[in-house]
Design brief:
With 389 residues, this protein is of the alpha+beta class. It folds into three domains: 102 residues, Nuclear Transport Factor 2, Chain: A (Roll), CATH 3.10.450; 136 residues, Nuclear Transport Factor 2, Chain: A, CATH 3.10.450.350; 117 residues, Glucose Permease (Domain IIA). Strands 12, 15, 17, 18, 19, 21, 23 and 24 form an eight-stranded antiparallel β-sheet that branches. Strands 1-2-3-4-5 form a five-stranded antiparallel β-sheet, with no helix packed on it. It has a five-stranded antiparallel β-sheet with strand order 6-7-8-9-10, sandwiched between helices. The radius of gyration is 23 Å and the shape is globular. The N terminus is likely disordered. It binds zinc ion (ZN). Zinc ion binds next to loops.
Length: 389
């Protein structure tokens, strides 16, 4: 460990440079941040291509970023996270600043908790882990299909297995629930994350959210949600913060959930865009529309399933499709992973594959119940170098 630390510290001791950590302030944008740090706006923003400019809008208040200063206090490098997968890297080379988007380096750990209810799943998980994110990952997986208030008793058991990301020894981003079980009135209820990125219950029925499975009926997904992917032609890191549904021009688009329209007009590369605000800070976006349905405008309430417009290719789009986004409190999330209420059942080969996965998860759950797995809080590691990873 000591050797590693020495190795990590070498570049800093030689050049006597230092790393400072800053926080993105409320209301601060990428541009105002560049201004504040006296970095060149033209080279680091206005000269960028459209995709990169759009990505810089993903910067959120409260995020920590690092600046490497040289001995004479000049900025050498900046690392600024965009989401849990990608970060902006600004670096000085031959007296010029350069911009690139690179992956965030993190490690993933599979963690598990077993506990007996003393008050409520949210309270008890939070008490054990100190994390509201872990608690809400469990609760939101079950809260529309089960009634904890009515059926849960003190002493009932729950198990959850989830994946947690760590960056520089610290937890970061939402944990991903892999499988969970809760026993209520002697009946066990399960949920499993399948290979298709959707949640299923123990009968292999898809568990669906407050949102429609798809806002365009019968449409094929032509591009999945991804917070980071390497573009094979452009040879660059990109993100796709929504799902694309390929469909013929003019195909009706349905509101994925009930809510209030907060935008129905053109918006830059989105083209004709509708935004709907839903409960609990959720928002859906429907882009590249040919046209809006008559009467669809800001302030209007729509019900889940209502037609709001028609598939088109307005804005920056290469062919007719719906670009669909789901956001929670401004953050893009994968619509396929929003859980709840049982519907469609898996069949045939897909069912067989699911049952195999389920068997493996069931064994894990049994193991954790038997061993009464306690959640271990990992110690925070310090002195790790952000610019060496
Ligand atoms: Zn898209």
């Amino acid at each position: 460990m000591i050797q590693i630390l020495i190795l990590l510290l070498i570049p800093f001791t030689i050049f006597a440079s230092k790393v400072d950590t800053y926080r993105v302030q409320k209301g601060q944008t990428y541009l105002t941040l560049l201004e504040k740090q006296k970095l060149p706006l033209k080279r680091l923003y206005y000269d960028l291509d459209n995709d990169d400019q759009i990505l810089t809008q993903e910067i959120k208040a409260g995020v920590h970023y690092q600046i490497l200063h040289s001995k004479n206090n000049q900025i050498q490098q900046v690392l600024l996270p965009l989401n849990e997968e990608l970060q902006i890297h600004i670096y000085k080379y031959k007296d010029k600043y350069n911009f690139e988007i690179i992956p965030i380096i993190y490690t993933k750990k599979t963690e598990a908790i077993t506990l007996k209810i003393t008050r409520s799943p949210h309270y008890d998980i939070y008490k054990k882990t100190g994390s509201t994110k872990i608690a809400s990952a469990f609760v939101s997986a079950f809260d529309k299909s089960l009634n904890f208030k009515r059926d849960l008793r003190v002493g009932d058991t729950l198990v959850m297995i989830f994946e947690q990301k760590y960056r520089h020894g610290k937890k970061f981003s939402m944990p991903v629930l892999k499988t969970a079980m809760i026993e209520m009135r002697k009946k066990k209820h399960y949920i499993y994350l399948n290979k298709d990125d959707r949640y299923y219950n123990e009968k292999g029925c898809k568990v669906e959210g407050f949102l429609l499975a798809r806002p365009v009926r019968g449409a094929r997904i032509s591009s999945y949600f991804s917070k980071r992917r390497f573009h094979p032609i452009l040879k660059r890191w990109k993100a796709h913060l929504g799902i694309d549904y390929a469909a013929r021009r003019g195909t009706p688009i349905h509101a994925a959930g009930s809510g209030k329209i907060s935008w129905a007009a053109r918006m830059g590369s989105y083209g004709n865009l509708v935004k709907i605000q839903h409960e609990d800070g959720y928002e859906t976006r429907y882009a590249h529309m040919k046209s809006f349905r008559r009467g669809i405008k800001r302030g209007k309430w729509v019900k889940k399933g209502d037609v709001i417009g028609y598939v088109g290719t307005t804005g920056r789009s290469t062919g007719p499709h719906l670009h669909f986004e789901l956001r929670k409190r401004g953050r893009a999330i994968n619509p396929l992973r929003v859980v709840q209420v049982t519907t469609k059942k898996l069949k045939g080969k897909k069912r067989k594959e699911f049952l195999k996965l389920k068997k493996m998860y069931d064994k894990d759950i049994e193991f954790h119940i038997k061993n009464n797995t306690k959640y271990i809080k990992l110690p925070t590691m310090e002195n790790e170098c952000y610019f060496c990873g």
